[in-house]
Structure formats: structure tokens, C-alpha cells
Amino acid sequence: MKKPARPLRRLALLAAAMALGTAAKASDFSEPWKNADRALVIDAYEYNAIDWAQLATDKRVVGFINKASDGLPPPYFCFGGETDVKLCKALWKRYAVTRELFQTRKVVAKALGLKWGAYHLARPGNPVEQANNFVDFAEPAPDDLIALDIEGIDPTQWMSLEDAEEFVRQVHRRLGRFPVLYSNGKTAQYIADNRYTYRLLSRLPLWYARYKPDIEVHFPMGNWQGYALWQFSARANCGRFSCPYRVPGTPNDIDVSVAPMKAEELRRQWAVGGLIDVPPDYLASIPVPIPREAGLAGKVTITYADVATPPTIEELVAVLGARWNKFRDGFRMPVVKTVPQRPGFGIVQYVAWKRAGQRTPEQLDAAFAAADPVSTASTTPDRSRR
To answer: Which InterPro entries match (predicted)?
Structure first.
């Protein structure tokens, strides 16, 4: 358990998410860390001491995921009694120091060639503000992995699953991609069993936490076909005398995860960002109605029809601008300077010129000669009747 603390682009994100979500084979559910070609990932929080020089000697370690934000940010302005003010200031100072440490670790890890990631520990409270806190705290680059850590389903202790879906949507609004879902076996199974209720959480790539040598019987295969990462080692099963895998330069209780792929493949797919098995427009889909008789009979499979995603602000501005230009042009008078300057150029010639749509002098002369002064009501005086 953790310590508290555009179309082508869419297709690419989807492909990466599907690869991470379905890559696990049968052998990857039983002590895959013993396979020397399986990539490993470290995740830590601010109180884990790291010897970076020693850590870099383990070439199987591909990535480092660090805890970023924890629930809502502490208030900057402090009110109340003396004790309350001191506690408030201490929390803010800790928050500021933790953020500086996070950014320092990011620089060091990337300098050593490690892939970087950040996770948010979900707490009760405004999910949109928590998502903003996470994005502002972590400042993730496009190639950084992002994750949402849901430790349980008790909404008095952890973020409710309904709020977690809103958190994920807000992260997608801010970054244009989805986080990985970190969850233990019990919580992951609950989400899988209620996947029609939690249609977004159930389609996030799964970072699975279970500290047993074999998970094939327990893994929620009805929803996820495989894991993106499996956190197999932590304080729960790693101590001074026994540990599934020890990473040099880290404490005994460091969290270690394994990927169902080789190191180079994990580096290519690291940032993920898409949904599993469904396109990103899954968010904007609706259930297809079923006949009443079929519903009463039971055993009905609910299907969803994709609908167009809501237009972006840029798209709305472009459409409104084009319509305004068309409306405005309808009230404009002809530009005088475009009319040929010729002697005797009256309404007859102007009509002929507009109908012809021609520009060369020869073509204009031909158009004028073909004009019918009678049908166009010429205003030239007829002096032959004097």
C-alpha cells in the first residue's frame, strides 16, 4: 500500500493504452520479475531516501514515479488561534518543500535516463480542484506518465469513485490525455464489477497493486485483460531478511513494479494517455435503447453509440467567424475601384460586365457589344426623333 503523503494523436494514444492494457501473458501473472527481460519501475514519496548513483546501476529499472499532490492544497492564508495558525503554516511549508523536492528528483531522474512519472493521492474533497492541484504541482511533460492513486472505496477516507471520474475528466481537459489508474486488488475488482457505472475508471490502464507471487486467479480479467504495471513489492512483503526484489540505492520498503514487457518497449509506450478497448469519444457516447420485452427477458448486452464530441473553443470561434464574415459581406456595396473606367460606362455596361465575369479589354468590349440597351433600360437620350 502506498504511503499517504487530435485524430492521429488520439489513435496513437489509444494504441499505446491498448498495448499496455493487454500485453500481459499467462507467465506475467506469476512472478514475472524473475524474468530478466521484464522492465521494472520504482515509485516513491518524499520520505524515501534515494541513492541515485546506486539506483542507476540496475539497468532493468526504466522509470521512476514520484508522489506529487495529496488531496487539496493547503491554504496559504492562515486564520484562527495561535495553534491553528502554526499548524496551517507548517502544512504550507511542508507542501512547498515537497514540491521543490519533487522537481529536483525529476531533473535528477531524467538526467540519469529514467522515464519520469507522477501520481496523485486521491482524498475526499472537490475532485476538480484536486485535479488542478495535481496538474499544477506535477507540471507533467507530454512524455511523463501520470497516475491517479485510489486506495479504497470508502468515501470518508478516500475520493469517491464518482468524484474520481470527474477528476479524470478534468485532467483530460487540462492535458488532453488520461491518467493511469493505481488500485489494489479489492478496489480494482469493485470497479470491474461495476464497469457500466464507472465507465471511465474501468477503461483506464491499470497499475495493479498486489503483493502475492501469483495474481492470475485474483486479477479482474472480466474488465482488464492485463496490467500496465504490477506493484509486487512494498513494505507489506519486503523487509530486512526477505524481499521479492531489491533495488540498489533504495530502502527496503520502496515500492517496485514490473511491466509485462521489455525495457525498450516500455520506454516507447511510457506516457500512455488513452483509454483501453474504446476510443476517446467513448466519453461522449450514449446507450442504445432496447425493446421492453428484451429488457424484461434479461441477459441483455448494453451497447453504446458514439456521438460527436463537443466542439472546442477554437472550433466555435472559427465557425462563428466564418458565419459573421458571410453575413457582413451580404451588406457590402460593390467596390468602385474594381469597375472598369471607360467612357460611356453606364448601367447597361455595368450589368453586362457583371454577367460576363470577364476581365480582359477584348472580352469586356465583346460583353458590352452584346448588351441589349432595350432590355436593360438604357438611359442614353435618343436624339434621332428631333
So the answer is: GH, Glyco_hydro_25
DSSP state letters, 189-227: HHHHHTTTTSTTGGGSPEEEE--SSB-TTTS-TTT-SS-
- Sign of the Cα torsion 212, 213, 218, 221 reads positive
Q: Please give the torsion angle defined by the CA atoms of residues 326, 332, 333 and 335, in that order, rounded to the nearest 10 degrees.
A: -80
Helices (H) and strands (E) in the chain, counts: 11, 10
Strand, helix or coil at 308? coil
pLDDT digits (tens, 9 = 90+) for 212-237: 999 999 999 889 999 999 999 999 99
What is the spatial distance between Cα 229 and Cα 149, in angstroms, rounded to a whole number? 13
pLDDT digits over 151-195, tens only?
999 999 999 999 999 999 999 999 999 999 999 999 999 999 999
Question: Per CATH, which fold does 7-283 belong to?
Answer: TIM Barrel (3.20.20)
Whole-angstrom distance, CA of residue 277 vs CA of residue 4: 31
Q: Which three cell numbers stand for residue 194?
A: 461495476
Residue 313: C-alpha distances to residues 317, 320, 325 (Å): 6, 11, 18
Residues 320-339: what's their mean pLDDT?
A: 66
Whose cell is 475528466? That residue is 169
Is the dihedral angle over the CA atoms 101, 103, 106, 107 positive or is it negative?
Answer: negative
Nearest residue to 230 (alpha-carbon basis) of 203, 263, 202, 257: 257
Residue type, 353: W
Q: Does 335 have pLDDT greater than 60?
A: no
With a threshold of 0.90, does the pTM exceed it? no
- Cα 211 to Cα 30, 224, 330: the distances in Å are 11, 19, 71
Domain ranges of the chain: 7-283, 336-380
State the DSSP code for 113: T
Residue with cell 469513485: 161
Contact 40, 258 (CB under 8 A): yes
User: Which segments of 151-283 does DSSP mark as H helices, in order?
Assistant: 161-175, 185-193, 263-269
